[in-house]
Amino acid sequence: MTSRRYDHLWCRIGQRLPWVAAQGISTHWLRHTALTWVERHFSYATARVYAGHTDSTGPATTTYIKADLQAVATALAVMTGQPHPLAVRVEHPDRLFRGTRL
Q1: What integer pLDDT is reported at residue 56 of this predicted model?
Q2: Residue 15 is part of which domain span?
Q3: I need a labelling partner for 84 at 20 to 30 A (CA). Which of 6, 73, 90, 100 fits?
Q4: Is residue 97 in a domain?
């Protein structure tokens, strides 16, 4: 799908759900929100890999911080509350999603 098509879909959704239009929700907004959550609950390195960013550009510290596929799978499992075969078990005393088990 093109970005134009996504924009059209969000415009139509905003017509049916006024709060979507009022908040300016879009595909980019959802991506930004998800990546912020991953960064805050896991790490900058995990959020960077989750976003699909490479180490070719960005701050020099990206040379030293790394996350693997397991870290991304774990973040996804915790965020969605659904098990993932590559996720490792994590205990969060202040877990955002209460009752979530990996």
Answers
A1: 64
A2: 3-80
A3: 6
A4: no
In a domain, 64, yes or no: yes
**Residue 51 corresponds to which tokens in the numbers above?**
């976003």
* Token code pair at residue 26: 């879009």
What value, to the nearest 5°, has the Cα angle with vertex 53 and ends 42 and 62? Answer: 70
Query: Over the stretch 33-65, which tens digit does the pLDDT of each residue have?
Result: 999 999 999 988 899 889 887 666 666 666 677
Instruction: Tell whether 33 is covered by a domain.
Output: yes
- Residue 64 CB: number of other CB atoms within 10 A? 9
How long is the chain?
Answer: 102
28 in a structural domain: yes
Q: d(Cα 73, Cα 43) in Å, to the nearest integer?
A: 13
Alpha carbons 30 and 39: distance in angstroms, whole number: 14
